[in-house]
Amino acid sequence: MPTRLEESYFADDLAKKKFILILREPVARHFSEYEMRLRVCLKIYENDDHINLGNSKGRLDDPVRLGRNCAAVSFNYHAGIKKETHQFMSFAQWVHSPYGLKELSRGHYHEHIAHWLQFIKRDQLFIINFDYLIHNTTDVMTRLASFLELDKGWGDNVVLPKPKQVKPQAVLDCTTAKRLGHYYSKVNRVLVDYINNVTIGKPKDEPVFPDLIPPSNCADLTTPEGDDLLAGVEEDDAEGERFF
Question: Fewer beta carbons within 10 Å, N or C terminal of the chain?
Answer without folding.
Answer: C
